[in-house]
Amino acid sequence: MDRANLKKPLWISHRGYHNRAVENTFEAFRAAVDLGFTACETDLRITNDGHIVLIHDPTLLRLAHDSRRVSELSRFHLERIRFAGGGKPFFLDELVREFAGTNWTFDIKPEKGLQTIRAMVDWTRSRRLEAWLSNQVKFLLWHKDHEGFLKTLWPGAVCYARKAECRRADLAVLIGLPGLGGIQRNRTYAVPPKLAGIKFFRSVIVDRFHREQARTVAFLPKTQQDARRAVAAGFDEILTNGRMVDSDLS
């Protein structure tokens, strides 16, 4: 592949740069932006009083040694939580205020996903942030009916292919028969570093998706070398826990 004509990928910081701070906190997102990321990924959950908090797990056990479920707590209680590694829960309204210029991938967690979607859309409209949601946010959902519900409320929502879609598409591409993968035009599919023991960050894999007029996101390169392979392969996006890199692979 001619590197001179290789389009640079969109780098997305996965839950912020949590090598420096606890994931999904203000500090993690600030670190990512300071490193040059223009896009970040985060996880949305709803509290018991209708606020949206950015936490990956259904409980606080991993981050705060607290076994309570996020959905059973109010914003008042969550604001008083302190994570074991530093920082505290971060909320959607704080994200918009602090990172207005950043692009986002919202992973809407399936537990109470419909309530989370409704609350997010209602909050956005109440703050007249429709342009922000339309122009700066893409979505990852875990159930087909959740995606359908989102698109009913927000017809212009841009959604990544769901996990099951990606598995089917990746396997079809692996065997060289992308037409069997149900790949949809303009949809973005997550591709892992390896599949069935085969290195998957290769230009031939990306090209097969592109021939179907679909887009690709390199899903969590495990090493710097993996990240460089993703750049060299021509991925449209790279979702990473690490830093952005340039390709120096031949």
Helix-strand blueprint:
Elements: E1 10-14, H1 26-34, E2 39-46, E3 52-53, E4 59-60, H2 61-64, E5 66-69, H3 75-78, H4 92-98, E6 103-108, H5 113-126, H6 130-136, E7 137-140, H7 144-153, H8 163-174, E8 188-191, E9 194-195, E10 198-199, H9 203-211, E11 215-219, H10 224-233, E12 237-240
Parallel strand pairs: 1-2, 1-12, 2-6, 6-7, 8-11, 11-12
Antiparallel strand pairs: 2-3, 4-5, 9-10
Helix pairs in contact: 5-7
What assembly state would you assign to the polypeptide chains in this entry?
single chain
Q: Could you give a short account of the major beta sheet? A: 8 strands, mixed
| Overall mean pLDDT | 95
Uncertain runs: none
Kindly state the percentage of residues in helix. 25-40%
Q: What is the fold named in CATH at topology level of the largest domain? A: TIM Barrel
Provide the number of structural domains: 2
Q: Work out the strand percent.
A: 15-25%
Secondary structure: number of strands: 12
Tell me what you see in this structure.
The chain is an alpha/beta fold and 250 residues long. It has 2 domains: 40-153, Phosphatidylinositol (PI) phosphodiesterase (TIM Barrel); 162-240, NAD(P)-binding Rossmann-like Domain (Rossmann fold). The protein is 34% helix and 19% strand. The protein has helices spanning 26-34, 61-64, 75-78, 92-98, 113-126, 130-136, 144-153, 163-174, 203-211, 224-233; strands at 10-14, 39-46, 52-53, 59-60, 66-69, 103-108, 137-140, 188-191, 194-195, 198-199, 215-219, 237-240. The strands form 3 sheets. Strands 1, 2, 3, 6, 7, 8, 11 and 12 form an 8-stranded mixed β-sheet that branches. Strands 4-5 form a two-stranded antiparallel sheet. β1 (10-14), α1 (26-34) and β2 form a beta-alpha-beta unit. α5 runs parallel beside α7 (144-153). The radius of gyration is 18 Å and the shape is globular.
